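User: Quick one: structure for sequence A, then sequence B.

Assistant: Sequence A:
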Amino acid sequence: MKRAVLLAIAVAAACSQPLPESGAIVIDMPTSPNNLDPRYGTDGASALAQQLIFNDLIGFDEHMRLAPELASSWETTDYRTYLVHLKRGVHFHDGHELTSKDVVYTFTSILDPKMASPFRGGYRDLDTVSALDTYTVQFVCKQPTGAFLINLHMKIIPDGASRDLRDHPVGTGPYEFARYAVDDTVEVKRFADYFGGAARNPGVALKIVPDDIMRGLELRKRTADLVINDLVPDIAYELQRDGLALTTVPGLDYQYLAFNFRDPILQDLRVRRAIGFAINRQSIVEYLGRGLATLADGMFPPSHWAFEPNVFRFAYDPARAKALLDEAGYRDPDGDGPQPRLTLTLKTTNQEFQRLQAAVIQDNLKQVGIKLEIRTYEFATLYADVLKGNFQMYTLQWVGGAVADPDILRRVFHSQMVPPAGFNRGHFSDAEVDRLLDDAARATDLESRRQRYARVQERLAELAPYISLWHKTNFALAQPELDGVQLSPAADLRFLKNVSRRPGAARPPAN
């Protein structure tokens, strides 16, 4: 995006919504949360909003290692029975103190088949959960497993909470729910009794602005305070030159292209590999990403403790792609002429970067004889299709916390993890992958887990259920008067409680 374009459109952007009078920190984001109940909301926007309202039983530190959050400590002697001790003096927004009853209810409701939580598949090894006393919870697994603790990275809800929690959430987080106007704004206000200390600002407003250019213009007009990752890199660089503060940190977010294995064309490994060799991933990173992304060869970046470097990788090799298509029986009907070998459909969101990326992939595939039809949707529509398996191919992004532990591989690629049990949305099935994942789930110490999940990554790289595209470099663009903007690898919003305006720095008027 050229600087002149931003300036020209800025003149016509007088219709931007005003900032809340409360002095809340305003963050522009492209999509609305689907569900504010942490038992159900699995999309990125829902996860971000939930981070402000709820706390996890066990959290992560800055190196994505498990760390206390609502739990003060935990212990196990046999990797089958886990005792979790709760912090005392933690209160929900309705005033009642967090106890083991709330924790037990959270997990039993997730395990209840009638509740149909998409997180239920993560707890197939959990046999019982019970309260030993007011502040101690016992989890008993069906078999010893070192992968269980990551499943306690779950936001805790009040005992007895109904499905109404999706619209009126009550948690223990630094902010309490104030208002949600769908496709407009989620507003939360400072919770004065937060156990981690009250926020340094009166509240946060998550404003839904679907268009990339409009999000950039709202920053320029100062009708927004902050945008995190949700800008086309070209616009981000232009806004930095205009005086906004840019903060970056290597991220965990993972962009991928997924296949539907119920489609007879895409069941063929040669076709999937041909697509992988045809996509110029480096050009996407360099020219679209503007350095705010790095090539991905799997779900985990090189900084991840479970990352396995010795796996099959796709290079940009159109000749090899054509040879694989020939081998699969999709020969070019007219040589270098216009007729395609086959036609496929790619679904993606209507965000600007995703549209541009889809256009690059479309052109790449055209060069090897594949006609690609691109269909763009609002996120909610795309996500609904993905959950129903209504696609041939799609591009989406796993966000930071989701890939913190390698157990995510089981929930995404095990044949028993198709929705609603898990996240195997493409119905991928491989007996060897299932065996390796089951074996990895039984590992207890860190090194054994690393070695076993390495074998899983090797097998998945060979079978290509996903084409890995890139890992995001997290970035935030903020008004220069904001203090305390500090991103994590997961790009979560928990840092917002420490954000304030510098003394004497009033919000400047809109231009």
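Sequence B:
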Amino acid sequence: MKNCRLFITVLTFIWLSAYPFKELCAENQLVKQWAVFEVEMKASIEGNPFDVELFGTFQHEDTTFRCRGFYDGNNSFKVRFMPSLSGEWKFKIESANKNLNKRTGQFTCVPNSKKQHGIVQVRDTFHFGYSDGTPFFPIGTTSYVWNLQGDSLAQLTLNTLGTSPFNKIRMCVFPKDYDWNKNEPETYPFQGNPPNQWDFSKFNPAYFQTLEKRILQLHKLGIQADLILFHPYDFDERWGFHEMETSTDIRYLKYIVARLSAYSNVWWSMANEYDLMKAKTDSIWDEYFQVIQKEDPYHHLLSIHNGPKWYDHSKPWISHLSIQHQNLKEVVDFRDKYQKPIIIDECGYEGDIPWVWGNLTAQELVHRFWLGYSRGCYVTHGETYLDSLDILWWSKGGKLHGESVKRIEFLKEIIENGPSEGINPPTNGYWHKRGGSFKEPDYYLYYLGNTQPAYLVLELPDKFTYSAEIIDTWEMTTTKLKGTYTGKCKVVLPGKDRLTLIMRRVKQN
């Protein structure tokens, strides 16, 4: 009997290795760890089916999750779940509607492939890592409504992302009305009559199905979907989605968390430039955060993005800072104040549009990436080059045209070849705010920015020796210096700007 079980186990392992699972798994299927398990039930409902509440309880030994279900159109009710543990899971569906109540079942969760690591979480106070402990260094970009441009342009965007260094993308749930983005979406999030006659009690499942399709496409590329749940870009009340009633907002939040929280590559960004939505007070935003906290059983990363005014990032539901800021020398102060990871999700855009935030040179954007990283933070890319068809990457996606991307990819390689724990700036001393971040005593990185010293005098630990390499951040070259260094030492430099000096401890045999 034991030999038979072993034989079956080996066959199962071979079969699993050869045939990858679908991302959406139904009952009686083996479900990969951190994939989406879905229970679907058909029921004809009198009245508004979106008013029906149903919940699924999923149990693995002493671990229990409770997940809200949702109506997906065509008499279909669904509950989705992301299993984090391998083994046998049991579930029970409960609802006040007798046609949906007391459904039970079970499934088997098996380990995922080595390429899938779970959800991204905060790690070591200032950095990020996946559920399985694999480090995650966010190298993001922004393309606000690429997901609403139709399949042809969306596929072009995905093709571009597939050859880019980006592992996170900021994107909106609602359509956006702004310069270079005046086209209508193919569908709308609510049922009703465009442009602004909506029945806010009834969602449009087709709209959210397209969003899910885009999230899965990103997942296959290994890209995190940083979903912006609200934004103010709905000028002249074109659609009215930015000024819905609080009760409607909460209803929407519960619905979208029920639909999307089981996707492992989802982040929640409560709003973009939240302070420009004048009708919503900070206490209302607090309430919305608490709704997501309660509804999301997996506790995905949760942030909010500022305009002129900052939200209080010290509040417990904020996992990390997603900020708009251009003086990147100050980000060390934000780390010290909030004790959370910092992503400068908007430091300006490489491009040539007339607006002041959208015409940085590629050199300047690359400089800001290095400034942020050398101060223990992360920076997000954006591109706004004018286009005859108004297809700007920052808004609609498409193709990238700038020179910063390949330099950002070079930086990504530097980051990934550095300490897996990440690096942190010293809290005081000469290198505090001067572009030095370390993992002592093994690794020291100094970004020199727009200065060009002929040499640096460093004070390294006396008991270790170090190799030195000079990184040209624009030319993307690495030059290893001869010899080793220890204690108080002088390192001769080429005397040009935009260089980075990396000192690595030499391992003794």
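The first strand starts at residue 24 and ends at 25. Confidence is low (pLDDT under 50) at residues 1-23.

User: Thanks, that's what I needed.
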